[in-house]
Specification:
The complex is a heterodimer of chains A (505) and B (173). Chain A has 505 residues and is an alpha+beta fold. In chain A, 39% of the residues lie in helices and 17% in strands. In chain B, strands 2-1-3-4-5 form a five-stranded parallel beta sheet, with helices on both faces. Classes of the chains: A alpha+beta (505), B alpha/beta (173). Bound molecules: iron/sulfur cluster.
C-alpha cells in the first residue's frame, strides 16, 4: 500500500485565515477562472448563487490544495445569462444546473441543463432560492433505445432494505451497464432555503440533519464559518474534542461502508462481522458523547460536552480490532477480492476533471485531504492531530476500500493521541454579527464546505451547504460505466459511501 | 396490547435485547406466521436507515425472531417509513402502500415522520399521518435498534388485532 507519508503541515495557522475573497467584474471573471483552474493542484470546490443587493451574486470557490488556500471569486451578474464556466472547468456543470434551477439564470449557449432537486410535480411557487427558470431542466433519461439494442431498466426510488430513496435508470442490453441515470429529487427538503432567516443555533439543528451520517463534519464546517465571522477563537480543548467526534464519525462510516460492501458481494459472514464492528463503534459514540451518531456534539464556539476519555480508551481498541480482523479476513478471501478489482474504475484524470474529494479521490491517486491541506481546528496546528494521508493509485473499488481501511487505522491512532492531549468540554460565545465566511471540514466522504452570510441581527441571509456527497455523486455514472455489469452497481455504490440526503439536501 | 399509538421513547439505554426478544417471540406465536417488512424513505437524513439496517446485525438479529425484510411490497405486512413525508415521494409511497395486502400496519420511524424536524409546507407533509394511516410511531432522532424492536412489538399487536377483525376473504378490500 502506498502512503503519502507524513506530510508536514503548516503550523500555527488560525482557522479561517487561509481564505482569499476577491471580486471580479464581467470582463475579468473568465480570465480569473481560467488562471485559477490552471494553478497546479487547484480544484473547483464549489459554485453557488445568492441574492445580494437585489441581484444575483455568483461565488466561485477554488481550493488551492498545494498552497493551503481557498479563493472565493465573487461575481455580480447582470441579466439572465453568463459565459459558461463549465467550458473552462467541466467540474462546474452540476452547479450550473443547480443555479439555473434555483435562480433561473443560465450559462449562455445551447447546452441543455438537467433537473437536479426540484421535483417534476413542483408548482411554480415551489420554494427556491430565487426566481424559477422559464423552463425546468431536462429530465436525464435514456432515449428509448441506444443503438437499437439497449433499454433503460428502472430501479427505484424505493429500493432494497432500508436504502435511501434514489432512482437509478440502468441502461443495458441485458447485463452490461452501458449508462446510468440518477434522479435524486425524491429527497429534496429545500434545506438551504429553510435556513434563510434563522438564527445560528436553530440553523445548526437542521444542518446536522441535512446528512446525518456526516453530522459532525457538516456542523463543524458550518460553525467554523460562523466563528470566523464573529472572530471567535475556539478553545484548544474544544478543538481537540471536535476532532475526537470527527474521527469517531469517520470510523463508524468506514465500518458501515465495509458492511455494505460485504452485503453487495453477498458475503453474509463478512457483513455480520462488519456490522458487529459498526455496532461497537456506535456504542462507543454513545459512551463518549451521549449520541450514537454524534448529533449535538458540535456547538457554536466549541462542543456541548467533552468526550468521556475513559470510555474512549477502553472501547476504541476492541472495536477497531474487530474491524481490523474483518478487513484482514476479507483481504485474504480471493472470491471477494476478485469482485472488487477493476470494478468501478475512476482514473486520476476523471477525478481531477470532476474535482472529486475524499476517499474516492485519494483512491485514484489524488492525495488531497483538508486536514493536511487546509489546516483547521487542531489539524495542522497541534502535533497530536497530524494526519498521514492514505493514497492508492488504481481507482477501483478495491483501492477505495484500502484507503478507507488505512484511514480507519489512522483515525484510531489520532484518537489515542487526542485523548492523551486532553480533549475536553469548552465553549466560547459566538456573537452573531453581519459578515460572510467560508468553513470546511474533512467528512468521511471528503471535504465538506459551508458558506455563511449573516445580517446585522446575526440571522442567516445565505447558508450554502456543500457536503462531500454533493461533489462525488457526479462521478458515479463514470465509475458505473467502466465496463461493469448489473451486480457491480451496489458494489460501486458501497465503495463511494455517499448519501442521497447530502446531495439532494 | 396497549392502545397508545406512540410506542416508545428513544429506548432504554440498556443493551438487553433478550426481554424484548422474548416478548416479540410470544407475540409472533400469537400471530402465527413470519412477518415481512418493507421500508420506504421519504426524505430521511440517512441515519434512521442505518439503525434499521442494524436490526439485522448480530447484536439484534431480527430474523431469528421471525421478521424478514422483503424486497416486494406484495409480500409485506408492515411498512416502515422514515423521513418527513416529502411530497416528491407521494406517488412511490402510495404505490407501495396500496400494493401491500390486507391486513397491514404502518410504522413511522423517528422524529421526522412525527413532524419533529420539518413543519408542513410546500416541500414536505411534515407528518406521515397526513398521507397514510399510521398505526405505530417510534420517536427518537434516530430511534435506537432496541427502540425499533419495541416498536415492532407494538406493531405486531396491532396486526394481530386487525387479523382478529377480519372475517372471510371476501371482506378484504
Ligand atoms: S428522525 Fe432524525 S435521525 Fe431519523 S431521519 Fe429524521 S433527522 Fe435523521
Amino acid at each position: 500500500m502506498s502512503e503519502a507519508g507524513a506530510r508536514t503541515s503548516r503550523r500555527g495557522t488560525t482557522p479561517g485565515q487561509a481564505v482569499r475573497v476577491m471580486r471580479a467584474g464581467p470582463a475579468a471573471v473568465v480570465d480569473v477562472v481560467r488562471a485559477l483552474a490552471g494553478v497546479p493542484g487547484a480544484r473547483l470546490a464549489d459554485l453557488f448563487g445568492a441574492i445580494e443587493d437585489g441581484g444575483l451574486l455568483l461565488r466561485i470557490v477554488y481550493a488551492l490544495d498545494r498552497d493551503g488556500e481557498y479563493v472565493v471569486v465573487e461575481w455580480p451578474l447582470k441579466g439572465r445569462e453568463y459565459p459558461p464556466l463549465s467550458d473552462i472547468d467541466p467540474a462546474a456543470f452540476v452547479e450550473e444546473c443547480e443555479i439555473y434551477e434555483q435562480f433561473g439564470v443560465r450559462p449562455s449557449g445551447p447546452r441543455l441543463l438537467n433537473r437536479l432537486v426540484v421535483p417534476p410535480h413542483a408548482a411554480h411557487d415551489f420554494p427556491r432560492l430565487g426566481t424559477p427558470p422559464p423552463r425546468e431542466g431536462r429530465e436525464p433519461h435514456a432515449p428509448h433505445y441506444v443503438s437499437g439494442e439497449a433499454f433503460e431498466f428502472p430501479f427505484g426510488p424505493v429500493r432494497g432494505v432500508a436504502l435511501e430513496s434514489l432512482y437509478m435508470g440502468l441502461v443495458t442490453s441485458g447485463e452490461e451497464v452501458i449508462d446510468i441515470f440518477l434522479l435524486q429529487w425524491h429527497k429534496h427538503r429545500a434545506i438551504e432555503r429553510r435556513l434563510q432567516g434563522l438564527p445560528l443555533e436553530k440553523a445548526l439543528f437542521i444542518v446536522e440533519r441535512a446528512e446525518g451520517l456526516s453530522a459532525v463534519a457538516n456542523a463543524w464546517a458550518f460553525c467554523q464559518a460562523a466563528e470566523t465571522i464573529a472572530g471567535t477563537t475556539v478553545p484548544e480543548a474544544a478543538q481537540a474534542a471536535r476532532a475526537v467526534a470527527l474521527e469517531l464519525e469517520r470510523l463508524y462510516n468506514h465500518a458501515a461502508a465495509l458492511a455494505a460492501l460485504c452485503q453487495a458481494t453477498g458475503l453474509s459472514v463478512g457483513q455480520a462481522q462488519a456490522e458487529a464492528a459498526l455496532e461497537q463503534f456506535l456504542r462507543l459514540n454513545l459512551a463518549c458523547f451521549g449520541h450514537r451518531y454524534l448529533f449535538g456534539v458540535i456547538t457554536l464556539g466549541g462542543v456541548s460536552r467533552g468526550p468521556d476519555l475513559q470510555a474512549l480508551l477502553h472501547l476504541l481498541p476492541p472495536a477497531h480490532d474487530e474491524l481490523h480482523r474483518v478487513t484482514a479476513a476479507l483481504w485474504s478471501t480471493n472470491s471477494f477480492m476478485d469482485r472488487l478489482e477493476a470494478c468501478g474504475v475512476l482514473s486520476l484524470e476523471q477525478v481531477e476533471r470532476l474535482a472529486l474529494v475524499g476517499p474516492v479521490a485519494r483512491a485514484s491517486g489524488r492525495g488531497s485531504d483538508t486536514r493536511t491541506d487546509h489546516p483547521y481546528g487542531p489539524y495542522g496546528v497541534i502535533r497530536a492531530a497530524d494526519v498521514n494521508v492514505a493514497v492508492e493509485e488504481r481507482g477501483d473499488v478495491l483501492a477505495r476500500m484500502k484507503v478507507m481501511a488505512a484511514e480507519a487505522e489512522e483515525s484510531r491512532r489520532l484518537l489515542m493521541r487526542l485523548a492523551e492531549a486532553g480533549a475536553g468540554e469548552a465553549v466560547t460565545e459566538v456573537r452573531g454579527q453581519a459578515g460572510a465566511a467560508l468553513g470546511w471540514c474533512e467528512s468521511p466522504r471528503g471535504e465538506s464546505l459551508a458558506w455563511l452570510s449573516l445580517d446585522d441581527a446575526g440571522r442567516i441571509e445565505r447558508a450554502r451547504l456543500r457536503p462531500g456527497s454533493f461533489r462525488n455523486w457526479r462521478a458515479f455514472d463514470d465509475a458505473a460505466r467502466s465496463r461493469n455489469v448489473f451486480t457491480d452497481i451496489p458494489i460501486i455504490e458501497a465503495s463511494f459511501w455517499l448519501t442521497v440526503a447530502g446531495f439532494a439536501r | 396490547m396497549s392502545d397508545a399509538s406512540l410506542a416508545v421513547g428513544s429506548g432504554p439505554a440498556t443493551d438487553d435485547v433478550g426481554s424484548v426478544a422474548e416478548r416479540l417471540g410470544a407475540a409472533r406465536a400469537l400471530f402465527g406466521r413470519s412477518l415481512h417488512i418493507r421500508t420506504v424513505d421519504t426524505g430521511s437524513c440517512a441515519v434512521c436507515e442505518s439503525e434499521i439496517r442494524l436490526l439485522l446485525a448480530p447484536h439484534y438479529d431480527l430474523q431469528r425472531l421471525g421478521f424478514f425484510f422483503t424486497p416486494s411490497p406484495r409480500h409485506a405486512d408492515l411498512l416502515l417509513v422514515t423521513g418527513p413525508a416529502v411530497r416528491a415521494m407521494d406517488v412511490a409511497l402510495a404505490k407501495t402502500y396500496t400494493a401491500m395486502p390486507q391486513p397491514k400496519v404502518v410504522v413511522a420511524v423517528g422524529a421526522c415522520p412525527l413532524g419533529g424536524i420539518y413543519a408542513e409546507d410546500e416541500v414536505v407533509h411534515g407528518r406521515l399521518e397526513n398521507v397514510l394511516p399510521v398505526d405505530v410511531s417510534i420517536p427518537g432522532c434516530p430511534p435506537s435498534p432496541l427502540a425499533l424492536l419495541q416498536g415492532l412489538l407494538v406493531a405486531v399487536g396491532r396486526l394481530t388485532e386487525k387479523v382478529g377483525r377480519l372475517g372471510f376473504a371476501a371482506d378484504l378490500t
